[in-house]
Amino acid sequence: MFDTVFRAATIVDGTGRPSYTADLAVQDGRIAAIGPGLGAGKETVDAGGLVLMPGIIDGHTHYDAQLTWDAYADPSPALGVTSVVIGNCGFTIAPCRPADRDLTMRNLTHVEGMSLDALRTGVRWEFEQFPEYLAMLERQGVAPNVAAFVGHSSVRTYVMGDDAARRAATPDEVARMADLVRGAMAAGAVGFATSTAETHNGENGIPMPSRLADEAEIRALVGAMGEGGRGVYMLTRGQRTTIDFLEELAADSGRPVIVAATFYNGTNPTASTTTLAQTRAARERGHPVYTQVSCCPLTMDFTLHNPYVFEGLTAWKPAMEAHGAAVAQVYADPGFRAAVKAELRDFRGRRLFNSQWDRLHLVNAATPAHAGLEGRSLADIAAERGSDPLDCMLDIGLAEALDTEYTAILLNADEAGVVPLLTDPDTHISLSDAGAHLTFFCDAGFGLHLLGHWVRARGALGFEEAVRRLTGQPADLFGIADRGRLAPGMAADLLLLDPLTVGRGPKRKVHDLPAGAPRLVTAGEGVHGVWVNGTRIVADNRVIDPARRPGRVLRDFAA
Fold this sequence. Notes:
Layout: E1 2-11, E2 20-27, E3 30-35, E4 41-46, E5 51-54, E6 56-58, E7 81-86, H1 101-111, H2 116-122, H3 130-140, E8 145-151, H4 152-160, H5 171-187, E9 191-195, H6 215-226, E10 232-236, H7 243-253, E11 257-262, H8 271-284, E12 289-293, E13 298-302, H9 317-321, H10 325-332, H11 334-346, E14 360-364, H12 378-385, H13 389-399, E15 405-411, H14 415-423, E16 428-429, H15 446-457, H16 463-470, H17 472-478, E17 494-497, E18 503-510, E19 519-525, E20 527-532, E21 535-539, E22 542-543
Parallel strand pairs: 1-4, 1-5, 6-7, 7-8, 8-9, 9-10, 10-11, 11-12, 12-16
Antiparallel strand pairs: 1-2, 2-3, 5-17, 13-15, 14-15, 17-20, 18-19, 20-21, 21-22
């Protein structure tokens, strides 16, 4: 007798092949058989009219800290995700010396929009080295499977201390970093991750440590990662990092390179297609360079207390360096405003926010005096007042003690421009950033959005191809050999859904982080069940029992 049998499911197996109707049996955490009329099971699931597919593999998350207090990586499992890849951009919490813990948390607060109170209250520092971090996750248990990058900024800080964000490394320091990377790979890291992106700043606007690395350091660390013949190099790319350089790294190391983050920018419409063409050309030359793209519009909610939307601007640095009442003084300074306006003008199309004031809305006023402005764009409000939109936003914020809530649709807003990113068969659809930017947005349901919006509503992709892009393809990219497909012998990571209703619900704010800190979450729609290694953890869009932790810390990856 099987443990579980799914009857009459529409099987979408993660390979891209056409769907078919069959039973699927699970035994001891693995798929035992697929076919008609399978034998009895201890549990039988009527899957008639529903799709049974592999669980979604989310390749771009930041659950490193959250997993130490939340084994479920909430809300991802209820959104169909059975495996998460953490440590992206190199923003990890291991390795980390005890003396550097608070600095690491303060940097995460700025670069990844995490609550400092939540981090200080919630993170369980039962580790120092990267192998100890993986061992801690295994001891406590995890609900989804977890694959972890070793992170450049953490490695750099471990070796260089405060100097990690100030200067280039010496050859001896690079050698010590390379040893840490080798040790992490031996312990089971999925690869090495870093960032050169200008938007990635830590406390007081200081660049994250990885941004201080020169090309020689990056070559050495990627080389150390690839010495064992496995591993993925993941980079969030700044404007000075070229695809040619990344192709050289792929050629020299023999390892895949994943380049983030590619969105469609309506003010620079050729940038994304140029990146696609460059990475495609690299692959045609035999060098595995892949582009990471998003299927969601990049929308951020913010206040002027923490305006991540603008913090990638060089001219915004005085506001990031200021604290308390001094922040308001910076916002009121005509010189600060003039510098920001000049950068927005001179670098239009090359920043996170590109002066599309018609897509930046005031959503919640903090005083009755401005309640009538709710729902209106800054372009509209500024035109009515005969003011510059930046001045208008700052003036309203200053009048409301910076508590005014805004929302901005930043990238991927023009769907016609997004289609080429999704229909290129080799792009890696991901970029959920789950676990980060918790008060700005929640894209953990990106996979359900792909299936509901882009497949069912828009018809941009076939269902089987979309499932491949969420399951089999990322499994191959990260070297996860026994997941991402439905076949006998594969791990029973399963998602049962209704293709007619699948999607993600509206975002809502909750205060369930440690210290009562807020975050945005979204619910799944059309999700009938999620199984990890054969154990059901979600039923009808809801987690069944938080005590169930059937996930694995993934350590063995294919070459």
